[in-house]
Amino acid sequence: MISESRPSSASQMPARRFAARLALFYGAVFGSVGTYLPFFPVWLKAVGIDPSWIGLITAVPSVTRFTVLPFITGLAERHRALRGAMIVTAILTAVGFGIVGLLDQPLLIFIAFALTACVWTPLVPLTDGYALKGVARYGLNYGPLRLWGSAAFVVGALACGLLVEVIDAKHLIWIIAGMAGLGALSSLRLQPLTAPPRAALALTRATALLRERGFLTIMAASALIQGSHAAYYTFASITWQGAGLGGLTIAGLWSLGVLAEIVVFALSPRFTLSPALLVVLGGLSAVTRWLITAQQPPIAVLAVIQSMHGLTFGLTQVGIMGLLVRHVPGHLTATAQGYLTACTGIVMSSAAILCGVIYARYGQAAYYAMALLALAGATTMWLGRHQADAPYGLAGQPQNAASGG
Questions:
Q1: What is the mean pLDDT of each run of 10 residues along the chain (405 residues)?
Q2: Which helix (H) or strand (E) holds 227?
């Protein structure tokens, strides 16, 4: 709601406090991802895990995204315990990575990491659901909140890239576990959000989201475009390492993409295109990115292509979150995030398996399959853009302040 009078500094304090503490938590969570994503496979290789086990182990988080994750996000939202769920999962994640670091047998690592992934993968959708509630509650913008996570990803990746040059790769797991520990500590300072009265909540059931065409469009487009990053997430570091690039250079390439993402998040409040069109542009950018990546470009071109991550991931994310704020009732934001992440997990894990098969035989040609996924996502959003972008709730009524939409 827009107030006719300018809010006082005192009335802005809760919003600033919420934003600052959420930014810190986003930073810790994504700082951990920044150390994990580029270098967890490198650690697995360093402790003697063979490639077939590496592929199986790294696929575990994608599987938990469409099995355990929706259950946890839905449970947390039904009991209006979103903040509590974030704290518990953050603490268990730190403990889990610590246990993984003590192991060196593939089966034991697989089991310990699978259990860790069950509590780790819900963290981001829980946090995004919490953030969207705060966006509606305090009139904030999602992008400037989320950019701190991306910034921390860069710091984490660069720090790990520097350390991989001076320490044994067998110790990389402790950097990941340490960042997870920071996430656990910062979760304790998250600000509780006042829940709307139960009478004010629409009686929309969570499962109704899965029967609503607009939400299905949002979910499918997001899963296809973000899932098209599977080859990049799984094989980029290994490919670059095989091409003779050092750890710092690899971290720099990852960080370049995320820096572009940060710029997109920072500028997102100024975007004038509809969220649906932002998603379409993100998908088409992904098509271009993967087609060029498949050509095994030299590092100068690769650096330029990496900057497109701001469009392929960042622009898509901003558009999807904008659609969710418009389209999903406020009391179902975390549940919607759970469904969204679950669908992405199905696509991502399937794409990772497909990429493994293609990469083993044809190398970089795996990116052609990713380009097709991104094109399918952009097409899905374009065809369903009117339903997805409609500023109404599931029942066809405008969102009200009490629903948080």
A1: 42 81 92 85 89 84 86 86 94 97 94 96 91 85 89 81 82 92 95 60 62 91 95 85 81 84 92 94 97 90 93 95 85 84 86 85 90 97 90 43 34
A2: helix 213-227
Pick the closest to residue 138 from 150, 127, 146, 130 (CA basis). Answer: 130
What secondary structure letter does DSSP report for 401? G
CA distance 321 to 142: 8
Residues 62 and 45: their CA atoms lie apart, in Å, by 20
Place of tokens 């009335």: 11
> Please, are residues 184 and 177 in contact by the beta-carbon 8 Å criterion?
no
Walk me through the domains of the chain, giving residue ranges and CATH numbers. 16-192+206-394 (1.20.1250.20)
* Nearest to 74, CA basis, from 340, 356, 388: 340
pTM of the model: 0.76
As a three-state string, the secondary structure of 89-112 is HHHHHHHHHHHHCCCCCHHHHHHH
Q: Give backbone dihedrals phi and psi of 5, rounded to 5 degrees, phi first.
A: -105, 150
CA angle, 133 then 266 then 185, to 5°? 55
* DSSP letters spanning 222-261: HHHHHHTTHHHHHHHHHHHHHTT--HHHHHHHHHHHHHHH
